[in-house]
Amino acid sequence: MSRRRNNMVLQKWKAGKAANSHTGALSTDGTSLFSYGLKIGYRAESGTTILGDFTSPGGDFRSMTTSCHVGKARRVADHVMHPVVFQNSEFKNDQG
User: Fold this and answer.
1) Number of compact structural domains in the chain
2) Which residues pair with 49 in a beta bridge?
3) What are phi and psi of 40, to 5 degrees?
């Protein structure tokens, strides 16, 4: 899999395709979106994308880079959830 810019990784996630950023910090398997291995997004079979708000204002700051990933992903996500709700949602631990 070739390495891509973050915006392209997000477009691939939205389309349900796997991709990695040029640094490997942002990645998707086509269903889940990861920032440094932390699952920050999920794509349902319907194509709906859901993002956990892992930022300081969102209530669960992890790192500056993860906050940047969330900020960029917010532009393509259909829904943004509070991180506690996201982490406790049924899809959070789904494999794939």
Assistant:
1) 1
2) 43
3) -110, -10
HEC profile of 15-38: HCCCEEECCCCEEECCCEEEECCE
Q: Distances in Å between the alpha carbon of 25 and those of 44, 47, 77? A: 22, 23, 19
20, amino acid identity: N
Per-residue model confidence as pLDDT tens digits over 7-38: 999 999 999 999 999 999 999 999 999 999 99
* Distances, alpha carbon 54 to alpha carbons 17, 43, 63, 82, in Å: 23, 17, 9, 8
CA atoms within 13 A on the CB side of 74: 15
Q: Token pair for residue 43?
A: 């794509």
Long-range contacts of 34-38 (CB under 8 A, 24+ apart): 35/62, 35/63, 35/65, 35/66, 35/69, 35/70, 36/62, 36/63, 36/65, 36/66, 38/62, 38/66
Domain assignment of residue 44, given as a range = 3-93
Q: 41: which 2 tokens?
A: 């997004």
Which two tokens mark 77? Answer: 């996500």
